[in-house]
Amino acid sequence: KYFIVTATAPVNIAVIKYWGKRDEVLILPLNDSVSFTLSQDQLCATTTACISPAFTNDAFWLNGKEESLENPRIQNCLKEIRRRAKESCSSCGSEDDITSWPVHICSANNFPTAAGLASSAAGYAAMVVAVAEVYGVSGGDLSVAARQGSGSACRSVLGGIVRWYKGEQLDGSDSVARQVAPPDHFGELHAILCVASGRRKKTGSTEGMRRCVKTSLVMNMRLTSTVDARTKNIVKAIAEKDWSSFCDLTMSDSQEMHAACLTASPPVVYMTDTSHAVVELVHEYNRVVVKEGQPQLKICYTFDAGPNACLFVPAAAVGQVMSLLLKVFPPSDHCTLDTYLRGLPCPT
Ligand code: DP6
């Protein structure tokens, strides 16, 4: 006897960053964040979950390699889903109580892990959806379970533009993700990922956040006065379909997060010279399109905990932006996204 379910979840990219935790165990943030969930077809994680009374224990494989299940994040996700399964369980108490069957989980990304491309977000989101379904959990808010795997994962269970509320409750019950707008809200948008390095990041997000909260004055300013106001403004820009302000607010928030990192002690450095060159190019491009009276063609960058830029680009600007990028960063100089995604070695 067994039940098996496969689910996929896409990557999401934050435009207002989640940076800083108020609870490291439950993974509760110090501020609300806002993100774009990319479409499923390119960067996504796929998870298959299988439960059977024949299994002797839970097991987990990531990209073909068996991983320890001692990881408390996976444990917390499983605990939360099993708790929900028990609440709505029709077989509980009987011989066929599926909530007591062990689960085997197989997860794979179609892009490299830990290179600052939010792979853990897609991974935990896909895992939570697959495991919940295989245990018969229907309805309910899966963002709470995904959040316990990785904070940013709670935004990947929803599509389009998503807001993750920090919540006030100590148990995190109100720290949930909600869709703010559908995927096509700003018309056809493309995300261009500029991979400056495919290497694993030096300082993980948890440590980076912790250090900023403890030591950075810019982080203190962010949390006490700027990020909440910026979140309010970006939600307003979204409601008014004000693409130009959306772009400006996205870039400011990325710059502020990285300024907080640089002013931590010791400094947390994610962006490289290549990242800064992308920033310069985007501002220069925006200056020209605005001067030409075409603010709808503006683009924006955002950087997570790594050197790779994610650019949000309106469909009508993709051709021009790609040719600019290729002129400034010829493919022979660095790893192309295609090389990177196929896992081939990047030139150094
Ligand atoms: C810079 O979600 O990876 O991408 O909750 O510790 O797993 P944990 O952190 P994680 O942090 C993401 C940080 C970020 C910003 C964001 O996605 O909002």
UniProtKB/TrEMBL annotation:
EC annotation from Swiss-Prot or TrEMBL: 4.1.1.33
Diphosphomevalonate decarboxylase-like N-terminal domain segment(s): 9-177
Span of domain Mvd1 C-terminal: 192-348
Keywords: ATP-binding, Cholesterol biosynthesis, Cholesterol metabolism, Lipid biosynthesis, Lipid metabolism, Lyase, Nucleotide-binding, Steroid biosynthesis, Steroid metabolism, Sterol biosynthesis, Sterol metabolism
Pathway: Steroid biosynthesis; cholesterol biosynthesis
GO MF entries: ATP binding; diphosphomevalonate decarboxylase activity
Source superkingdom: Eukaryota
Keyword Lipid biosynthesis: yes
Reactions catalysed, as given in the entry: (R)-5-diphosphomevalonate + ATP = isopentenyl diphosphate + ADP + phosphate + CO2
GO cellular component, one term: cytosol
Gene Ontology biological process: cholesterol biosynthetic process; isopentenyl diphosphate biosynthetic process, mevalonate pathway
EC top class named in words: lyase
Physiological role: Catalyzes the ATP dependent decarboxylation of (R)-5-diphosphomevalonate to form isopentenyl diphosphate (IPP). Functions in the mevalonate (MVA) pathway leading to isopentenyl diphosphate (IPP), a key precursor for the biosynthesis of isoprenoids and sterol synthesis.
Family to which this protein belongs: Belongs to the diphosphomevalonate decarboxylase family.
Protein name: Diphosphomevalonate decarboxylase
Organism this protein belongs to: Hyalella azteca
Taxonomic path: Eukaryota, Metazoa, Ecdysozoa, Arthropoda, Crustacea
Shown residues within the full chain: 5 to 352 of 441
